[in-house]
UniProtKB/TrEMBL annotation, chain A:
Domain MPN: 25-158
Function field: Component of the eukaryotic translation initiation factor 3 (eIF-3) complex, which is involved in protein synthesis of a specialized repertoire of mRNAs and, together with other initiation factors, stimulates binding of mRNA and methionyl-tRNAi to the 40S ribosome. The eIF-3 complex specifically targets and initiates translation of a subset of mRNAs involved in cell proliferation.
Residue ranges with Basic and acidic residues bias: 267-278
Lineage of the species this protein comes from: Eukaryota, Viridiplantae, Streptophyta, Embryophyta, Tracheophyta
Predominant location: cytoplasm
Source organism (scientific name): Gossypium arboreum
Name of the protein: Eukaryotic translation initiation factor 3 subunit H
Keywords, ordered alphabetically: Cytoplasm, Initiation factor, Protein biosynthesis
One Pfam family named in its UniProt record: JAB
Automatic annotation (TrEMBL), chain B:
Cell compartments where the protein resides: Cytoplasm
Cytoplasm found in the keyword field: yes
Protein name: Eukaryotic translation initiation factor 3 subunit F
Top-level division of the source organism's lineage: Eukaryota
One GO MF term: translation initiation factor binding
InterPro entries associated with the record: eIF3f (IPR027531), EIF3F/CSN6-like_C (IPR024969), JAMM/MPN+_dom (IPR000555), MPN (IPR037518)
Record function comment: Component of the eukaryotic translation initiation factor 3 (eIF-3) complex, which is involved in protein synthesis of a specialized repertoire of mRNAs and, together with other initiation factors, stimulates binding of mRNA and methionyl-tRNAi to the 40S ribosome. The eIF-3 complex specifically targets and initiates translation of a subset of mRNAs involved in cell proliferation.
Pfam families xref list: JAB (PF01398), MitMem_reg (PF13012)
Family: Belongs to the eIF-3 subunit F family.
Quaternary context: Component of the eukaryotic translation initiation factor 3 (eIF-3) complex.
PANTHER family assigned: EUKARYOTIC TRANSLATION INITIATION FACTOR 3 SUBUNIT F, EUKARYOTIC TRANSLATION INITIATION FACTOR 3 SUBUNIT F-RELATED
Membrane-spanning ranges: none
Length: 337, 286
């Protein structure tokens, strides 16, 4: 009896907890309003803040957040920043707010958030917290009546590669990783406490049409589209630069190989001559010769990130163009009547 | 006229007769959240209001945080150090937000409130006291704002009277987000671009239907005609710009072509991306 019980205990202790994959991020309305307020107040500057909440099974609940002050480029302010964070967390703990960091949020302009800094911040957070998420908010899109809120997470396979800092073509082919797999977008669910929904229902103005609707039906989206296309063009330039880097690498690689072959041929003929003369053949390799030095392969990380950004812009353009079609046809039917 | 013996109960009117307050929805959300999370033995939540005073005298309440307090029948104790710490932290982020008052949940103004109001009036002149009735005692959630006015009998200060001031809920951000999202207790998915358009157009259609029905009713004589509404409808219909059909068609087709061009551009960009990716990773190194 005791034996079987002991074994089951050991079994339980031995089986590792398998983390269920993150499926949904549940945000409270309070957090959304706070993020919107903070990002809008400081736009067009980019701001960040910390998310607090709970990690429950396959749902990550975000229940509160606080903004970070704008960081000056000064060494001594680093310690201040950490102090501010500790102070805020301590104070919020006293009023019974969930004290766990579950991620951070940041604002962006027109969706241009895929940078190396984002990935670095992710790895920093991931060291301490098992599951963290980054929420991106785009205040420039709220002028069109769209709530541009996204929850992002780095995919696990990408994280392993990033830690190894190895982005050669072979590794990527091995893992079957392409630029789509870097960021995973997680669906967002919004929840509100019953008290708040009671208040909101109460205080909502009675108009059947809200400001949101006016924004959505606006016909002039040209400035937004123009900026989007501008950013797209810049990114294309970056992408072509990356392509050129690769081209250069391949060309120098093939040139080096041709040199190696030529050198090897020469050695072989020399050796034949030496054998004919009865001397020791020289080795067929010569590590000290510079043409044998392996050329480092450029990392593909940048090109992946740029590709991601371009895809983002394209998506945005598609979305707004779709909306514009709707609006134009609406106008047409109004005019016909 | 001898001023002399008669002492008059003076009601000093508030310093600016047109003092009013504007509240952002975030503040109400914050207060409700703090109320739900309050420690078990506390009956109500007290906290500080942050914001700014606009040039025309209106007080704009933009943010808030709760302050732990202990309350008994005779006295109220507020954690002042916590209050200062939070204030400093908040001002690091947004130095323009200053204390404009304090809030408490519960319908009326109680005796202890006067003491707290006194404390806050030492921090800022003429603080605003906001009460949020989370108990729904009147059958609805009421949010009221008060300013304190000193009642003096001659030279002696008698009491402080809380006078209500008009309160305006400025809901612009919440409207932008969409009340549908904020109202329900759970929303499964944030609407994306096209779904939002659908909802908006649905609402527009409903509005047009309403107007149509109203005009029908008036014509049939079921509803008495109101000249103002009639004029309003006529103005709205007349505000559609008068363009000749070919001019309008040209305008529309041009815009359509622009959009199609953009769509085409973005598709080309994506094709380029696919190609670039294949070239980059599929190349075998000999």
């Amino acid at each position: 009896m005791a034996n079987s019980m002991a074994r089951s205990f050991l079994q339980v202790a031995a089986t590792e907890e398998v983390a269920s994959p993150l499926r949904v991020v549940q945000i409270e309305g309070l957090v959304i309003l706070k993020i919107i307020k903070h990002c809008k107040e400081f736009s067009p500057a980019l701001v960040t803040g910390q998310l607090l909440g709970l990690d429950v099974g396959s749902v990550l609940e975000v229940t509160n957040c606080f903004p970070f002050p704008i960081r000056e480029e000064d060494e001594e302010i680093e310690a201040d920043g950490a102090n501010y964070q500790l102070e805020m967390m301590r104070c919020l703990r006293e009023v019974n707010v969930d004290n766990n960091t579950v991620g951070w949020y940041q604002s962006t302009i027109l969706g241009s958030y895929q940078t190396v800094e984002l990935i670095e911040t992710f790895t920093n957070y991931q060291e301490n917290i098992r599951r963290c998420v980054c929420i991106i908010y785009d205040p420039s899109r709220s002028n069109q009546g769209v709530l541009a809120l996204k929850a992002l997470k780095l995919s696990d396979s990408f994280m392993e590669l990033y830690r190894a800092n190895n982005f050669t073509g072979e590794k990527l082919r091995e893992k079957n990783l392409s630029w789509v797999d870097i960021f995973e977008e997680i669906p967002i669910k919004v929840s509100n406490s019953a008290l708040i929904s009671a208040f909101m229902t109460e205080l909502e103005s009675d108009t059947p049409v809200t400001q949101c609707d006016y924004d959505r039906l606006q016909l002039s989206t040209k400035p937004y589209m123009e900026r989007n296309v501008e950013f797209l063009i810049e990114c294309m330039d970056d992408l072509s630069m990356e392509q050129q880097k690769f081209q250069f690498y391949y060309r120098s690689l093939s040139r080096q190989q041709a040199q190696q072959q030529a050198w090897l041929q020469k050695r072989r003929t020399e050796n034949m001559a030496r054998k004919a003369a009865g001397e020791e053949p020289l080795p067929e390799e010569d590590p000290s010769n510079p043409i044998f030095k392996p050329i480092p392969e450029p990392s593909r990380l940048e090109s992946f990130l740029v590709t991601n950004q371009i895809a983002n812009y394209c998506n945005q353009i598609n979305g707004v163009a779709g909306q514009n079609f709707n609006r134009l046809y609406l106008m047409k039917s109004l005019q016909d009547n | 006229m001898a001023a002399g013996d008669r002492t008059v109960l003076q009601f000093n009117s508030p310093s600016s007769a047109s003092l009013s307050a504007k509240v952002h929805p975030l503040v109400i959300f914050n207060i409700c959240d703090c109320y739900v999370r309050r420690p078990d033995q506390a009956e109500r939540v007290i906290g500080t209001l942050l914001g700014s005073v606009l040039p025309d005298g209106t007080v704009d309440i933009r943010n808030s945080y709760a302050v732990p307090h202990t309350e008994s029948a005779e006295q109220v104790a507020l954690d002042i150090e916590y209050h200062h710490n939070m204030l400093v932290s908040h001002q690091k982020v947004n130095p323009k937000e200053v204390i404009v008052g304090w809030y408490s949940t519960g319908l009326g103004v109680t005796g202890g409130s006067a003491l707290i109001h006194d404390f806050y009036s030492r921090e800022v002149s003429n603080p605003i006291h906001l009460t949020v009735d989370t108990g729904f005692r009147n059958g609805e959630g009421t949010v009221k704002a008060f300013v304190s006015v000193n009642l003096a009998l001659g030279d002696r200060q008698l009491a402080a009277q809380f006078q209500e001031i008009p309160l305006d809920l400025c809901m612009v951000e919440a409207e932008r987000v969409g009340f549908d999202i904020l109202k329900k207790t759970a929303v499964d998915k944030l609407p994306n671009d096209l779904e939002g358009m659908e909802v908006t157009m649905g609402r527009l259609l409903a509005l047009i239907d309403d107007v149509y029905k109203y005009v029908d009713d008036v014509v049939e004589g079921r509803v008495p005609a109101d000249n103002n509404i009639g004029r309003f409808i006529a103005e709205t219909v007349a505000s559609l710009p008068k363009l000749s059909p070919p001019a309008f068609d040209k305008l529309m087709n041009d815009s359509l072509q622009d959009q199609l061009l953009l769509l085409y551009l973005s598709s080309i960009a994506r094709t380029q991306l696919g190609l670039a990716e294949k070239l980059n990773t599929a190349a075998q190194i000999l």
